[in-house]
Amino acid sequence: MRRPTADPAEAARTTPCCTKVGLKRGPWTPEEDELLANYIKKEGGGRWRTLPKRAGLLRCGKSCRLRWMNYLRPSVKRGQIAPDEEDLILRLHRLLGNRWSLIAGRIPGRTDNEIKNYWNTHLSKRLVSQGIDPRTHRPLNPNQLPSHLKASSSSSSKVNPGASTATIPNPNVKLAASSSSGQITAAGKENHYQTENQGVLRSNGEDDEDINNCNDDVFSSFLNSLINEDAFASQNPLQQLTNGIAQADALVSITASTFGLAQQDWNFNQNDHERVNGHLN
DNA sequence: AACCCGGACAACCGCAATTAA
DNA sequence: TTTAATTGCGGTTGTCCGGGT
């Protein structure tokens, strides 16, 4: 990464916007930040490919977008992740897996990159030290599971063997979930930056007519109900585990029906999970 | 003081999804 | 309907910096 692409063969393999000779790479200078921020304040974001030229920057569009999204946006909150934010990240990750943009969309002022970094450097390691698999949020050693949970783990195998793939087990669902709350639809792009992060568990601010808000509202409110359960936080780890399985079950069922996951796909994933569980046990 | 090591984070890459022509 | 361009996402890595030796 971040290596110069002087080699033509290498350059041919990489995306065009990053291979133009003379484009700057690496850390941004305050001057560049100012140029970019001022330009976007005046002209707005979007059209990233041509933005650098218009703004007088020697950067590729991707780099500009990333810098704006992760650092320069006024709504970006800097500083330590608060304990309640941390708790929210943990819960959302258990439900959504590595869907960083989805998670970030529900934590005001935090970016997907920031959450991803925080997860990889702090939370993931902490879970491992507690004997919990950070991918599945289950005990690393299956023997730590009480017998009744071991038995139910196969019957509830529609819950993820790994949250990252099983809570929303199908690419179709990823699409549905993304368009509902994480990714920005074309129609929603215009006001995305102004209105996003207006509240926890609110979608990113698309106009109600912009997207299929039926799905959005259902997904959002359902997720909301899951992660806001006060009872959840006060439960002991075993109860949390049990509850988590039940919740994930419910999430998967609702997600599948609400977001149009084909039944055959769903069955496939169930089988898939059982196969994985079989390997685990 | 110099060096090494590891943690934290910013930035890049490749790919997939979406949009426009 | 097809194709090209653009955008967004997640995984990965380079760089910086502080602490330890």
Poorly predicted tracts of residues:
1-18, 148-214, 230-246, 248-281
**Sequence of secondary-structure elements:** HHHHHHHEEHHHHHHHH
Q: Can you give the helix content as a percent range?
A: 55-70%
Number-wise, the strands total: 2
Give the secondary structure arrangement, pairings included:
Blueprint: H1 8-13, H2 30-43, H3 51-55, H4 61-72, H5 83-96, H6 100-104, H7 112-129, E1 132-133, E2 138-139, H8 147-155, H9 163-166, H10 171-182, H11 186-195, H12 213-227, H13 230-234, H14 237-258, H15 263-280
Antiparallel strand pairs: 1-2
Helix pairs in contact: 10-12, 12-14
The structure holds a DNA duplex (21 and 21 nucleotides).
Brief overview:
Residues 158-170 have a biased composition (Polar residues). Helix content is 60%, strand content 1%.
Summarize the structure in words.
InterPro entries: Homeodomain-like_sf, Myb_dom, Myb_TF_plants, SANT/Myb. It is found in: Nucleus. With 281 residues, this protein is mostly helical. Helix 12 packs antiparallel against helix 14. Helix content is 60%, strand content 1%.
